[in-house]
Amino acid sequence: MTQPLEELQTFFAGAIRAPLPVEEQPDARARVSHYVAGNARLAPAAQLEIYRDQFWMRHIDALYEDFATVHRLLGPDAFTTLVERYLEAHPPTDFSLRDLGAKLPAFIASVAPYRDDPLLADCARLEWAFIDSFDAEDAGPLDPSSLAAIPEDAWPGVRLAIHPSVQLVALSYPAHEYRAAVKAEEEPPRPEPAAACVVVYRGPEMLQYVPIERPAFELLERLARGETLGDACEAVAASGTVVAADLEEKVGGWFQHWTASGWIRAILR
User: What residues does each domain of the chain span?
Assistant: First the structure.
């Protein structure tokens, strides 16, 4: 048998999570006086509406802060509609707002009409990459002596441990440039399609991002998945995005850049 407190909690949660005002929710309007007393100034529905307003304001504001470029592309009203649809599909399940938008990039990429705009999906994925990078675990820098300890013929079999803050984002639009303009409080025009490969990472003092060439991105992706250096290089060479002879020359420069940027935390044998 349902307990009165459980009934109250279920009713309250359902009413405040609904995107419609309490007065426009037929079930809530009919039942609210059973759970909310009201007072001389406010009717029961009006009292409950205060909590519903706060719920939506808090969650819309949190997602606006995390997805500023999505908000800029859609505009305030359409962004609010997106949040309402998203939270209806994925109601909050945690007291913390940190993970509130974790499923928003996938929601945008799969639900009409948002899925019809690749730039919107790119912006959402990039914004979430910054959040994941910021909150990632820390790890010590690569020990330079570990490089000297590896014989030359052993390098194809090594694996690289990538720093937890490194996030790899393949884009069909230059969403990183658009995001930078939005963060600078500019009024950027909608960018034209242009593929880009971006690495987001936590630098010594702040979050940073850098676009890198496609073959380097593919190699870093494979290494991050745990492939050996030799297997990863062979796969990238076979993909056709770089000539095999050029790859051998480029890998050394890429590796120096990655270690200098703190992307590699250890060499595993």
Answer: 1-100, 117-269
